[in-house]
Each structure stands twice: as structure tokens, then as C-alpha cells.
Design a protein that fits this description.
Elements (H helix, E strand, L loop, with lengths): L12 E2 L22 E4 L13 E6 L16 H11 L4 E6 L2 E6 L8 E3 L5 E5 L14 H13 L12 E8 L2 E6 L19 H4 L4 H5 L10 E7 L3 E6 L12 E6 L3 H10 L4 E2 L8 H5 L5 E6 L4 E7 L9 H10 L2 H9 L32 H10 L3 E2 L5 E3 L2 E2 L1 E7 L3 H16 L3 E7 L1 H10 L4 E7 L7 H5 L24 H10 L3 H17 L3 E5 L3 E6 L2 E2 L18 E2 L2
Parallel strand pairs: 3-12, 3-13, 19-20, 19-21
Antiparallel strand pairs: 1-21, 2-14, 4-5, 6-7, 7-9, 8-9, 10-11, 11-12, 13-23, 14-23, 15-21, 15-22, 16-17, 17-18, 24-25
Helix pairs in contact: 7-9, 13-14
Length: 567
């Protein structure tokens, strides 16, 4: 996953994408982009939770580093495993009725005070009980330090939102006053899901990146890092200074397993008790037969979006007719049907926003891009291309050859790319497949060393952050310390102000209207081609006791402090 990514930004990336078709035995039918879910054997909060014991979880990806501000922390699994468990945050994401909403975390005494005129000013009131694992209080200085590091540091993953802040004042240790130079609508996502809040008393005046990137033992959450065995596991133990509900478990071990097959083998053997899986096709029959002693859940109500992401600055993809011709070459309905049909998902996404962001987008923006080889011919010939004797498009005597990039050792990804390559070939496009490790995919794409990449963006806050990944100012360059998330190198003057409105306007109706207009421009310029909503899948042993559920921002592990395990 990209810690879209997807993150200031609201996204990190996800490299290994779930093959949800294998969970037909779990889920009811739903249409593409829907929000239906189904559970089997869900644990309930009313059950008495035992104390003690070790929980072992299968983790698909190992973090490249654990300095959440640095560009090296692009993978979402690092956020799920450690950031969400150890970094205090101003707001939590919780379910309210059928919606996901922001709620002040136990770091605060309640809702912040908000002033919108003449400038946007947010005043946070910190709970006097909140403290770091060394016993020192969490203070307003920690808010100020976090802002300063993100807004003014180098090699920052994403500075969105924090760069809108003019100052963070500290009238007393329990009060942080954040004044914005430019309004920022998604302010509740700051000092939260993307980065958390950092301990100034430990990091001020030090090399933050050196102190954090290989692990850190301090914490402001329910857990702290006990050990990190590179390539093997990461072990968390309770933070005894945590002022909220303390963990029931003695420790949680995240065991890094290289393939989904090895994850499922470990789960069936009982050596791991929980998975947030990206199932491979070779485990379909095993799952459909049922897993003894297991509970499961599937949901399409996610903050995820999988797409074919184009490098808009890389020839020949710097040509709009070529990008559009590629879109008309593909039968996305057929691809989605092949991959997800047995689940009841038959149609692709038609927007570059995740399902949870539907109010801010035109959910049918890309619906006009369907298989149409006549349009392919018209676009390509109009752009000066002609088919050679081999049926491949060529220009100035040079045949076209597209490089398709994805992560290695993923059967479902391989099948997706095989389907894409077959359809492109019939339309006259030759292509090659390049695979890299899941750990390397994010850095390769960020560097611009790709043409077409298959991965998913994953929200780390509830607000849209399209400006962070599509605004021209966020194209990674030496001028911005290569910190931008616009890995697709999108540069559309008409798009920037609309996405900036979505990001900054405090008028909710204006934000939604701008988002819908922006979606139409994104589609007209074919900056990327959406595929599916990437549903989330949970599998856990019935030995686990407590409220197990999915969270579209923080994953199923966010409330592990409330879990226990039976012998």
C-alpha cells in the first residue's frame, strides 16, 4: 500500500492489493464502489476480555523506516503497525451511525475552539493526564515542534496543511493556538492520522530522522515498540504511562510474511491469530471451504482506490491522445468481472476518489471511457501515429512500447497486468511488465521512473486531499525537497484552483462543488484510470476476544488495546 498514501497529505500507498474475489464465502454481493459489508463471527465488546498473553499478527509489509515525517515512510503498513499505536493525535476517526466522523481523541479535553474570521484559528486544550511513556506531559510545545518539522523540514513526505499554518503559539503547556495564514478545511486531519504528534522534549535539537527511522521506544499511545528484528518482526508492549484504556495483552508481535500464501499457511497453522490480508488467487479454494476457528469480515466502505497511474510527463504518456487511447483500449468491466465477479463486484470505479469521499467528487466522471477501438484509431492517427505491419502503433519509425510497473510476487497483480497487456496488444500497444519489491515500489514511483503503475492510494484522513497528489506545486522537485506526492507529474492550470478550493475553503458546499468540477477535468485529461475501490478484509482467530472491526483510516488494529486472547 501507498501510505496515500497514500498523508498534510491524506494518502499513503498500498503495493499489495487485496484479491477480494476469494472472499465470496464471506461477503454479500455488491456493486463496484459500494459500501456493503458482511461479517462472520464478529467479536463483541460485551465479552469479558482476558488479561495477558501474546497476540501474533501476520503483516504483509515491513516499514522501510519509522520516521513518519520523512519521505521514506510512504507505506501504509508502517502507519497501521506502529504510528497509530504510539503517536498521540488530536482527533480519532470513529463510526457514528452509518458514517465515519472525526471525534476529539483523549489527548484533548473536548472540541477545540475554532475561529474563522478574520483568520482561521484553532485552539486545542490538552488533557492534563496526557503524558509520554517517560512520564513527561504532552504539551503545546509538542504541537509547535511537529508543525515546525513538517512545514520547514527537508525530505518531508507531505507538507499539505502544515504549510497553511502561520504560527503555533503556546500560551501555556496545555493550550496550543494554531493560526492559519491560509484557511484549511481539513484541519482535523492535522496533528493526527498522517503523522501524529512528536515529543519535543526528546527530539528538539536532535536529528529527528536519525533518532526515529530505525525505531523508537518512546510512546504517547497505548503501545510502545519493544523490538524490531529487521526482516522478521516488530514487537509492541503496553505503554504503562498511557492515560487511556491500557492494553489487556502482554505484547503484540507483527510477523513479516513475504507472501499472502505464507500468511494463510501461518494463519491456518495457528502461528498467527489475525490477518488484514491481500489474498492471492491460489488460496481461493481454501478460503471458500472455510477456515476452522476463524472470524471474518469484508467491507467496501473504504478509504482506498486502486488505479492505473500514468506518469503524465513521460513520453509517450505526456500526450493526452495517447493516454485517452490507452483508456479506450481497455475493457475495465471485463477486468473487474474477472477479478471480482464472484463477489458480485461487476463494475469499475469511475472517479479517482475513494468511496468514503463520494460527496466531494463526480462518481461517474470516467464512465465515458469504455472499450472503443474506433476511438483508439482516431486518437492515435490524429496524433501522428500509424500502425506498422505488426499491428503496433509507431511514430517516426519507432514502435510504441509501454512499460507497466507493479509489485512482484503477487498473483492477483500478475493476472491484472496480463489482462491489461492482452487488451492493449489488441489495440496496437506493445508493452513490457516491470516488477519491483513492495518496499521499493513507492520510491520508484516517487522518483518518476515509471510510465504506468498499478497500486492503491489509501486515505489517512477523512477529507479529500487530491491537491496533494494532483496539484502542480506538489510535483517532486529539488525546489520542494522532493517532498511532493504528485508522483503522476500532473500539471493542469485549470485543475489547481479547484483542488485548492476543496483543500482550503471553509464553505462545505463550495468544496463539494469544486471537487465535482475537478473530477471532470481529471477525466477529460485522463491523468489516471480508476479500477476498483479495494475492499478491506479482516480475518482473526476466535481466540481473540474484544471489539474487532475495520477502521477505514487506522485499520483493524487501531483498538488492539481492547483485545484479549484466550489460551
Amino acid at each position: 500500500m501507498v501510505r496515500g498514501s497514500q498523508r498534510g497529505s491524506s494518502r499513503r500507498w498500498l503495493a499489495a492489493v487485496a484479491t477480494v474475489a476469494v472472499l465470496a464465502f464471506v461477503a454479500s454481493a455488491c456493486s463496484g464502489g459500494g459500501s456493503k459489508s458482511k461479517s462472520s463471527g464478529t467479536s463483541t465488546p460485551s465479552t469479558t476480555v482476558p488479561n495477558g498473553g501474546t497476540l501474533t499478527v501476520g503483516a504483509e509489509q515491513e516499514p522501510r523506516c519509522t520516521d513518519w515525517i520523512d519521505a521514506c515512510s510512504s507505506q501504509i503498513w508502517g502507519s497501521w503497525i506502529l504510528e497509530a499505536q504510539t503517536m498521540p493525535r488530536a482527533f480519532d476517526v470513529v463510526r457514528k451511525g452509518g458514517d465515519w466522523v472525526y471525534q476529539p481523541s483523549n489527548l484533548l479535553t473536548g472540541e477545540p475552539d475554532v475561529q474563522t474570521s478574520p483568520k482561521q484559528v484553532v485552539t486545542y486544550h490538552i488533557d492534563p493526564q496526557a503524558r509520554w511513556s517517560d512520564g513527561q506531559p504532552i504539551t503545546s510545545a509538542d504541537f509547535r515542534y511537529t508543525w515546525d518539522q513538517v512545514a520547514h523540514g527537508e525530505n518531508i513526505y507531505d507538507q499539505t496543511g502544515y504549510q497553511n499554518i502561520a504560527s503555533v503559539d503556546t500560551p501555556d503547556p496545555r493550550t496550543a493556538v494554531v493560526t492559519f495564514a491560509r484557511s484549511y478545511a481539513a484541519w482535523k486531519g492535522l496533528f493526527g492520522g498522517l503523522y501524529g504528534i512528536f515529543p519535543s522534549h526528546l527530539l528538539q535539537g536532535t536529528d529527528r530522522d536519525a533518532a526515529m527511522k530505525n525505531g523508537y521506544t518512546w510512546s504517547g499511545g497505548p503501545w510502545r515498540l519493544e523490538s524490531w528484528q529487521r526482516g522478521t518482526s516488530m514487537t509492541l508492549v503496553p505503554n504503562e504511562q498511557y492515560w487511556g484504556p491500557k492494553p489487556h495483552l502482554d505484547r503484540v508481535v507483527f510477523q513479516f510474511l513475504a507472501t499472502t500464501t505464507s500468511e494463510f499457511d501461518a494463519f491456518k497453522a495457528g502461528t498467527v491469530q489475525a490477518l488484514y490480508p491481500q489474498p492471492e488467487l491460489d488460496v481461493v479454494s481454501a478460503i471458500q471451504q472455510g477456515l476452522a476457528g476463524a472470524s471474518s469480515k469484508f467491507t467496501a466502505d473504504t478509504g482506498n482506490l486502486e488505479a492505473l497511474w500514468f506518469n503524465n510527463a513521460s513520453p509517450p504518456l505526456d500526450s493526452l491522445p495517447v493516454r485517452q487511447a490507452i483508456a479506450y483500449s481497455l475493457d475495465r468491466d471485463q477486468i473487474v468481472e474477472r477479478l471480482f465477479g464472484m463477489l458480485g463486484v461487476h463494475h469499475p470505479m469511475q472517479t479517482l476518489d475513494a468511496p468514503t469521499l463520494a460527496p466531494y467528487t463526480d462518481t461517474n466522471a470516467f464512465a465515458g471511457y469504455r472499450l472503443d477501438l474506433t476511438k483508439v484509431d482516431t486518437l492515435m492517427t490524429g496524433a501522428g501515429w500509424a500502425k506498422g505491419a505488426d499491428g503496433v502503433w509507431a511514430k517516426a519509425g519507432k514502435p510504441i512500447s509501454l512499460q507497466l510497473l507493479t509489485n512482484a510476487n503477487n498473483q492477483r497483480r500478475s493476472l491484472t497486468m496480463q489482462l491489461v497487456q492482452d487488451q492493449l496488444r489488441r489495440a496496437g500497444f506493445a508493452s513490457t511488465l516491470r516488477t519491483v519489491s513492495s518496499n521499493d515500489l513507492g520510491s520508484v514511483v516517487a522518483s518518476g521512473d515509471f510510465q504506468v503503475a498499478l497500486y492503491a492510494q489509501v486515505l489517512t484522513q477523512l477529507d479529500p486531499a487530491d491537491c496533494s497528489i494532483f496539484c502542480s506545486a506538489n510535483i517532486p522537485t529539488p525546489a520542494n525537497g522532493n517532498s511532493g506526492q504528485n508522483w503522476q507529474r500532473v500539471n493542469i492550470p485549470d485543475l489547481d484552483p479547484l483542488l485548492q478550493t476543496v483543500e482550503s475553503s471553509l464553505d462545505e458546499a463550495a468544496r463539494q462543488n469544486a471537487g465535482k468540477q475537478a473530477a471532470k477535468i481529471e477525466a477529460a485529461n485522463m491523468i489516471a484510470l480508476p479500477l476498483d475501490p479495494l475492499p478491506n478484509i479482516l480475518l482473526w482467530s476466535k481466540r481473540i476476544v474484544g471489539p474487532v472491526d475495520d477502521n477505514p483510516i487506522y485499520s483493524m488494529f487501531v483498538n488492539m488495546n481492547e483485545w484479549g486472547i484466550r489460551p
